[in-house]
Design a protein that fits this description.
oxidoreductase (chains A, B), globular, 8-stranded mixed beta sheet, Rossmann fold, alpha/beta, N-(1-d-carboxylethyl)-l-norvaline Dehydrogenase, domain 2, homodimer, 2 domains, EC 1.1.1.45 (chains A, B)
Chain lengths: 328, 328
């Protein structure tokens, strides 16, 4: 079965990421979505929550499909058991708790009940496919599809196979999220090796660690550090990646010239990067200070605030795709 | 003299940053700009280059001032000597070579010739004010104003005083770049302590180091890493800083809940971050691979390419300021 064929996706676990993923899949033509979650009020919860995500699928339209409409037309099914949700699936996607034992047990159960050709995707941010598949008989079917929040808006999906995952399974996932060709809002990227945090979170956490250190050392406040990021690196990296930025920064000599010109400062910074921990009791002095300043600066984000941030995120992503019609 | 008063800015060094800074200052009302550069063809160079930067000052207008017009109206003066450029300045801003001996010598000379009240700003990315002022008699006047490329578009200016810089000098610089109140395109941030790379480049280089390591280990290609950044962290950090993002990511529990939930993965990532160097001969295997892949992916950016990237950058910055009129 090709990724362009109609797909039937079983979603296991309907938290915030699951709900956003449901909206993502439902925004495509030729999909049927089967959902299973252990919460008893799943239907009421879907009716209440999913419309917020579906609305984002049609930025230029007030006509979002309703949950009842999707159910009536057979595009959305709510299931009482895992087996029933997986029975006709071509893709089974899991976004349950980040717990190795849970994931190993779910995949063994899914394997025993799902159609033999179905693709198995886990939305984990931290548990590699090779660990999750320990109790599976066939280890070629499972791979990580790691989304960034919120997945129905954020373009990135990190596709991370285990060493045992079949290449055609990897290609199927990459192709599915690239559809329709040239028009997909999503940008799947295949990661070549399993590594903790994959790539996006490793980059984010590397920057975060230094940010926490700089707040701990009182070089800058939480609020000012965020301003610095929004007023420079954020918009720069929204338009160029880090390597392309420095290729440009080096002028005609490219990144090689940049590394030569800034190498002294860069080595001094690399040699003195902050050494702090998030777990344990040592080198965690930053936590109290960072949490307190972050709470003071932002409090709890309101529903309106989150909505405005999602609208702005969509504007950035639209701006990324804009063409400017040649030189001024 | 208040930052709101008319200012006369002497710019020492007219490379790319200096040219962009000239456009920044000339875009404001009530400024006169005096330039000095050692290149013999400085007038031809200004006539040829400055218009590209001035055009960016008026995104909604085709009517950019011409260089000859600015000279004729007395808003722009080209000087043959440093002393003449500084003679009537209220602000002297230096963007010469990143060389400590050069900067120490320039500031000693400037101090001996400039009006006694003039403010001294250095656009260095790597040499602290406390090091630059070694040969000055009065160490209260100099501070770093570190811009991000290109400064006439990029909002951030890092203001980094030395321990000897007078607080009113710091406040003057902050206020100058905040004008007009509520309308300035720029966002000056005061850094509380001198530290190599200041804040913006420390954060950028922390992320870059991990990026280089991941390319070295063949986890991901240069091009795919850039795609990952543009499809997730770039637009996220253009809309929120890193702390606000994780405050939101933690839901009602804020960043504290986020650190608890993701702490295991985060500590694993922090403990295994790549250890690579840019100088010396050890741990520099990444360089050949990164330079080669970056050259292959991007080549030399064309003039059209740079122009399009600057237009897109302006769109991101405009989108940051947009208001969305409350909840949907």
């Amino acid at each position: 079965m090709a990724a362009t064929d109609p797909q039937r996706i079983a979603l296991i676990g309907l938290g915030t990421i699951g709900m956003s993923m449901a909206a993502l899949h439902l925004s495509r033509e030729n999909t049927i979505v089967d959902v299973f979650d252990t919460r008893p009020d799943i239907k009421e919860y879907l009716l209440q929550t999913l419309p917020n995500f579906l609305a984002n699928n049609n930025p230029n339209s007030d006509q979002s499909p309703t949950v009842n409409g999707l159910i009536a037309s057979g595009r959305l099914h709510i299931h009482a058991t895992l087996d029933s949700a997986c029975a006709s699936a071509t893709i089974i996607q899991e976004q349950g708790p980040e717990n190795l034992a849970f994931k190993q047990s779910i995949w063994a159960q899914v394997e025993s009940t799902a159609p033999a050709t179905a693709h198995f995707w886990t939305s984990t941010s931290g548990i590699a496919a090779s660990a999750q598949q320990a109790d599976m008989a066939d280890k070629t079917r499972l791979l990580v599809v790691h989304p960034f929040n919120p997945p129905h808006i954020m373009p990135l999906l990190e596709i991370v196979p285990s060493p045992s995952t079949a290449p055609e399974r990897v290609e199927f996932a990459r192709e599915y999220f690239s559809l329709p060709p040239g028009e997909s809002r999503h940008r799947p990227v295949v990661i070549r090796k399993e590594i903790p945090g994959f790539v996006g979170n490793r980059l984010a956490f590397a920057l975060l660690r230094e940010a926490c250190y700089l707040v701990q050392e009182d070089v800058v406040s939480v609020k000012d550090l965020d301003t610095i990021l929004m007023a420079s690196l954020g918009p720069r990296w929204a338009g160029n990646g880090v390597f392309e930025s420095y290729q440009q920064g080096g002028g005609e000599g490219g990144i090689k010239a940049f590394l030569e010109k800034l190498g002294g400062t860069m080595q001094e910074v690399w040699g003195g990067l902050g050494d702090v921990n998030v777990l344990g009791s040592e080198k965690t002095e930053w936590k109290r200070r960072v949490i307190q300043q972050t709470d003071e600066a932002y409090g709890t984000l309101t529903k309106e605030g989150v909505w405005e941030k999602e609208e702005r995120l969509k504007d950035f992503i639209r701006a990324q795709e804009r063409r400017y019609g040649g030189e001024k």
